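**Protein fold record**
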Amino acid sequence: MVESQIESRGVSNPRVLEAMRTVARHLFVPESVRAMAYADHPLPIGEGQTISQPYIVAVMTELLDPQPEDKVLEVGTGSGYQAAVLSGLARHVYTIEIVPSLAQRAEKTLQANGYDNVTVITGDGYRGLPDVAPFDGIIVTAAPDEVPGPLLEQLAIGGRMVIPVGTIDQELRVIERTEKGFETKSVLPVRFVPMTGEARKKPPKGSGLDSHTSRSGLLVVAEASLESR
């Protein structure tokens, strides 16, 4: 999987590649689709949600570039697979899931397989975890219409957020917080499930990234859209 689906498409960070080799993906999918666990596409995990294809997990992890002492927030636990990949790369991972049954299942799987530096929280991730912030990295695995302002505020100076944004036409963005503000790069077109909860409410005027961005750029690393969770 790693060589044919990930390395061959340009993911090169050795730590990320090792994490992708180490985490047993089949443990995070339902038995009914376990035979396809390492296939190059998303898989259903119940409650209308999916586990992202391996490539998009690797791409988002490489873009986040978590370091051994980092504290990372994931919004959208899903199966727990992305959190498991991050757990070997960061000091601690906090992950929020709005669907209680998915949060419970992911927590059980993560605990049973020794991912002791992952904390699973059931709730709406739109407002992040202000009591635990700031975070060195934030990764979002469902797409809001606009970047949530509370998540931007919880990003540490020098920190990085990887997030899909949009409705029908979505793009994966990397947002870095600097001393002067926020810098944004649009990376590639994607297709994620929509962020639910508070994100579905129309944001007030002036909220989100438009009121925080100091500079934007464009970095195209792929051509095809990817379906992911």
